[in-house]
Amino acid sequence: ASILVLHGPNLNLLGRREPDQYGAATLAEIDQALMDQAAEAGHHLQHLQSNAEYELIERIHGAPAEGIDFILFNPAAFTHTSVALRDALLAVRIPFIEVHLSNVHRRETFRHHSYFSDIAEGVICGLGATGYRLALAAALEKLDQAQE
Ligand code: DQA
C-alpha cells in the first residue's frame, strides 16, 4: 500500500523548536524512521512538510491519482484553523489518522478544538515521535485488514 505523511507549519523546526513540548527528534529523523517502518512491512511511504496551507491542499487533491491509500496528518497550527484542509480531506475520502506530538488537551484552550478529529479514523496526541510510529502501525493494520 501507499501511505502519505503530511506535516503542517513549523514542523520543519522540530528538534530546535520548543524541545520540551515537541521532543528532540528532527523531522528528518521522524520521516526516515517511518519510511523504514513502512518498507519493513512491504509498503511505500512518502512525506511532505509545508508551511503553506495551499501546498498541503494541493497534495491532498493529488493523492487519489497517486494511489495513496492512507494519510497520517499532523496539521500543526492548521489543526485549529483550517476548514479548507478539512474540506480537502472530505473531498478525496482517503482515510487518515491525526497525529500531534504534544498533548494538545493539556495546553491552551485554543488547541483543544480540532477541525479534523471528528472525520479522522483516529487521533494520537501527547506521545511525541512515538505517536507517528503507532499511527503508522495502526494504518498498516487497517490496510491489511481491508485487503483480506
Ligand atoms: C502540534 C500541536 C499544535 O497545536 C501546534 O500548533 C503545532 C504542533 C503538535 O504536534 O503537537 O504546531 O500539532
Automatic annotation (TrEMBL):
Gene3D superfamilies, sorted: Dehydroquinase, class II (3.40.50.9100)
Family matches, as Pfam families: DHquinase_II (PF01220)
GO molecular function: 3-dehydroquinate dehydratase activity
Keywords assigned: Amino-acid biosynthesis, Aromatic amino acid biosynthesis, Lyase
EC number assigned by the record: 4.2.1.10
Task of the protein: Catalyzes a trans-dehydration via an enolate intermediate.
Protein name, entry field: 3-dehydroquinate dehydratase
Source organism per UniProt: Alloalcanivorax venustensis ISO4
